[in-house]
Structures are given as structure tokens and as C-alpha cells.
Design goal:
Order of helices and strands: EHEHEHEHEHEHEHHHHHHHHHHHHH
Largest sheet: 7 strands, mixed
Structural class: alpha/beta
Distance between the termini: 62 Å
Number of helices: 19
Number of strands: 7
Helix content: 40-55%
Length: 484
């Protein structure tokens, strides 16, 4: 059969179908295959009717219609299904052909696949794709990484189908080798967890502390979306709160208060723990979802322990203004922490992640797209070696202006019995990060007391370790390792 397809895609679930239609819209001929063959025919008869999409009924036929080098995009469930698909594909490919994993894979898997396939002469790209069904169809944020030699062969397609920012720049660019693309997507998803938790905490305070109706809250989020909090998640929150069920009551009130997750936020938090990065806000967001899942247990706890939420009796309009500031400052900290994690991974893996480019890629198409990502890009354009986002003059000023309101919100929430774990952890990080001296000196003394773990001294050079015989009975033997 004539080699006529510019790219092939395996996996015709919603994301896969929409990416195919997006590519077709931009003039690319796409071959498709699905393990359940009937899905191919159904797609051609319905969503892909009238397009140039080529349906195939076997992997052999699928590969045969691809132009060289073959470009194969896999859109199947992360984990073993990706490996199984690759295993079936490799015997059909030639050196220099390209396999692209566009699913939500864990970045170590992409690193492994890049290296394993390189030994066979096959180029691999692990690509994060964000934006949901609508993004896939009309312009997602695309985060590719892997074998650099593959990038020129897929760059035109990816940048054509990606979302575009105001100046026409595509929300897609090369991020680095091995698992860099999926790592950035993982951090994106972790920040997404944090953003959603922060917004939910603001909703909780307006709903339970201020006693606002869903329509009133929708109006506030709508107003916030016209200012510095402008973002996709703020926008859809306004829409959600305004939506009514068939009986005219707010739909949001009918939804059970248990949040699900696919695990990418947990991956982010675990990676931060492994690297020793204080990604506190994302961690709290993940734990908050775990807590929400304990619905039956929480019902018992409410009956047994009592639930004493008090109403706010102060100036409601002023508190809402404070809440806007607290939400904004917490959001800045969340992104600062996310960039700390990316910097640690980039330095350890020698990826040379382009931090400003990442902000641009996230500016459109993806779930965390927000106006202030332009400010993040500007910060790294001014100083590519910026150590922490909080050091940038713009963000430093924004947080300084917000911190009084931030403290009022967190302290008020605590006094009313309403948990705000993400906002309060962000504030605690901000205060702790600015402290030249923390109480960890006592903590390290405790470690040395019970475990002879040693300590460093303020009056001696770093890297010189000491042990005290605190009881007079411990002797001079110390632990063999020291972990800061």
C-alpha cells in the first residue's frame, strides 16, 4: 500500500480521536489503529466522516501506510499497555522511526523507553498533553521530551495543532532529553491539584463562613477572572457555581464531596519527597483529596467529635477582597515550589529545562492556563538563572502586598473551624523560606541525642560534623551517615 500518512495514531479513546481530528484540520493525513478494530470503523463512519483519516485493521497495515521516518503516536492507558504496544510495533519499524507516547505516563518510564528504544535505533518521544477533550480537539498544551533527533520530524505537526497565545506562539516546544516532557507534565498536574484545592478553600470560606449563595459566589469568581486571578480554573468555577439542576437548585450542592484522582499529583508529591524539595502545597492538596475520600468515616467523626463551623461576623466585602489576595499569594507560592522541583530535576538529570518556555507552553490550552504565566515567562526572560520565583521583583512585590490579607484569611479560617490546608501551608512555606534561622538546630540536637546522628556548628565551616555525649553514657561512636 502507498505510504501516504504523515503520522499514525494508536488508541481511539476521546483524546486520541480529538487529536486525530485536530491534525486533520491542519492538513495532515493521519492513519489510525485501535486494538478493538470496530472502534476504527465506527470512528471513520462518524466523527472522522469526510476527513482524510486512513483507517487500518492491523498494525502491519498501519505501519505500511506511514511515510518514512514513521511517526507513530500512542494514546493508550499509561503503564504496561504502552510497553505492550511498543513491543508489537518495534519489529515493524526501521532505524530512525519515531514512537511518541502522548499518554499520562510517569516520567521514569519515558526515560527507560527512550534509552531502551535507542539501543534498537528507534527514536522515542514522551509527550505530555494537557487540555482535556476540548484542548485535544482545538489546541492543547504539548510538552515533548526524549530523543532530540526526533524533534525536527514532529515539531511542525505538534506546533500546528497546539494552542496559540496572543502573539501566535504555539504552546509547544522541546523540553529536554529522556523523561523531561512527562516530568514537566507531572509537575503541571501537581500544580493543577494545588490550584483546584486553593479555589475549593476559597469556595468553602464563602459558602460556610460568609453564607453566600451559589449565584453570589459565581459572581465573585467571575469578577476575579477579570483581574490578576484570570485563569481557566477560575472561569469554570464561576460557570459551575451558576449551573442549576433540573429542579432549579445549584448542581454543585448535589455533588458528593469525595474527590477522585489519577495519581499524577501523588507522583509529584512523592518526587518532591525523594528530592528533598518542600512542595508543601501540592502535598496538602493530595492529602485533602485523601481526606475527602473518607466520607463514611467523616460522617461518623462529625457525629462523634462534633463539627463547629462558625459564621464570619465582620465586613464581608473586605473579607472577599482579602480572600482574593490570599488566593493569589498562595498561587504564586505553588508555582514557585513547582519551579523549585523542576530545577532540582533538571540539574540532577542534566535536562536544561527551559523555564520561561514552560510558562509559555502552560499559557494556553492546558488546565492551569492563567494570565500570570506571562509574568512568570517575563521573570525568566529577564533572569534565566532566577533561583526562585519569589526573588523576581514583580512577584516579590505582589506577595508583600498580599501578605497582610493572606494572614487575616488563614487566621480567620482557623478561628472559624474551616480548614484551609493549601493556603496555610503556602503561608508557612513563605514564612519559613524567609527565615535565616529555623528551629531545626533543636531537631538536629534531638537526632544526635537519641541516634548520634551528629550536627554542624554555626561557628565552624559547613561539612564539619560533631557529636555530643549528651548523657555522659553515650560515648564517642556516631551514626555512619548524615542526612540533612
Amino acid at each position: 500500500m502507498k505510504q501516504q500518512a504523515d503520522i499514525g495514531l494508536i488508541g481511539l479513546a476521546v483524546m486520541g480521536q480529538n487529536l486525530v481530528l485536530n491534525m486533520d484540520d491542519h492538513g495532515y493525513t493521519v492513519a489510525v489503529f485501535n486494538r478493538t478494530i470496530s472502534k476504527v470503523d465506527r470512528f471513520l463512519e462518524n466523527e472522522a466522516r469526510g476527513t482524510k483519516v486512513i483507517g487500518t485493521h492491523s498494525l502491519e497495515e498501519f505501519v505500511s501506510v506511514l511515510k518514512r521516518p514513521c511517526r507513530v503516536m500512542i494514546m493508550v492507558k499509561a503503564g504496561w499497555p504502552v510497553d505492550a504496544t511498543i513491543e508489537q510495533l518495534v519489529p515493524l519499524l526501521e532505524p530512525g522511526d519515531i514512537i511518541i507516547d502522548g499518554g499520562n505516563s510517569h516520567y521514569p518510564d519515558s526515560t527507560r523507553r527512550t534509552n531502551e528504544l535507542a539501543e534498537k535505533g528507534i527514536l522515542f518521544i514522551g509527550t505530555g498533553v494537557s487540555g482535556g477533550e476540548e484542548g485535544a480537539r482545538f489546541g492543547p498544551s504539548i510538552m515533548p521530551g526524549g530523543a532530540p533527533e526526533a524533534w525536527p520530524h514532529v515539531k511542525p505537526i505538534f506546533q500546528d495543532i497546539a494552542a496559540k497565545v496572543a502573539d501566535g506562539s504555539p504552546c509547544c516546544d522541546w523540553l529536554g532529553e529522556e523523561g523531561a516532557g512527562h516530568f514537566v507534565k507531572m509537575v503541571h498536574n501537581g500544580i493543577e491539584y494545588g490550584d483546584m484545592q486553593l479555589i475549593s478553600e476559597a469556595y468553602d470560606l464563602m459558602n460556610n463562613a460568609l453564607g453566600m449563595s451559589a449565584d453570589e459566589m459565581s459572581a465573585i469568581f467571575g469578577r476575579w477572572n477579570e483581574g490578576k486571578l484570570e485563569s481557566y480554573l477560575i472561569e469554570i468555577t464561576a460557570d459551575i457555581l451558576a449551573f442549576k439542576d433540573e429542579d432549579g437548585q445549584p448542581m454543585v450542592d448535589k455533588i458528593l464531596d469525595t474527590a477522585g484522582q489519577k495519581g499524577t499529583g501523588k507522583w509529584t508529591a512523592l518526587d518532591a519527597l525523594e528530592r528533598g524539595i518542600p512542595l508543601t502545597l501540592v502535598g496538602e492538596a493530595v492529602f485533602s483529596r485523601f481526606l475527602s475520600a473518607l466520607k463514611e468515616e467523616r460522617v461518623v467523626a462529625a457525629e462523634t467529635l462534633g463539627s463547629s463551623i462558625e459564621k464570619y461576623d465582620g465586613n464581608k466585602a473586605a473579607f472577599i477582597d482579602d480572600l482574593e489576595q490570599a488566593l493569589y499569594a498562595s498561587k504564586i507560592v505553588s508555582y514557585a515550589q513547582g519551579y523549585m522541583l523542576m530545577r532540582a530535576a533538571s540539574e540532577e538529570s542534566d535536562w536544561h529545562l527551559p523555564y520561561g518556555t514552560i510558562a509559555l507552553i502552560w499559557r494556553g490550552g492546558c488546565i492551569i492556563r492563567a494570565a500570570f504565566l506571562d509574568d512568570i515567562k517575563a521573570a525568566f526572560d529577564k533572569n534565566p538563572a532566577l533561583l526562585n520565583l519569589l526573588f523576581d521583583p514583580f512577584f516579590k512585590k505582589q506577595v508583600e502586598e498580599a501578605k497582610a490579607a493572606w494572614r487575616r484569611v488563614v487566621s480567620t479560617a482557623a478561628s472559624l473551624g474551616i480548614p484551609v490546608p493549601a493556603m496555610s501551608s503556602a503561608l508557612a512555606f513563605y514564612d519559613g523560606y524567609r527565615r535565616e534561622r529555623l528551629p531545626a538546630n533543636l531537631l538536629q540536637a534531638q537526632r544526635d541525642y537519641f541516634g548520634a546522628h551528629t550536627y554542624e556548628r554555626v561557628d565552624k565551616p559547613r561539612g564539619e560534623f560533631f557529636h555530643t555525649n549528651w548523657t555522659g553514657e553515650g560515648g564517642d561512636v556516631t551514626a555512619s551517615t548524615y542526612d540533612a
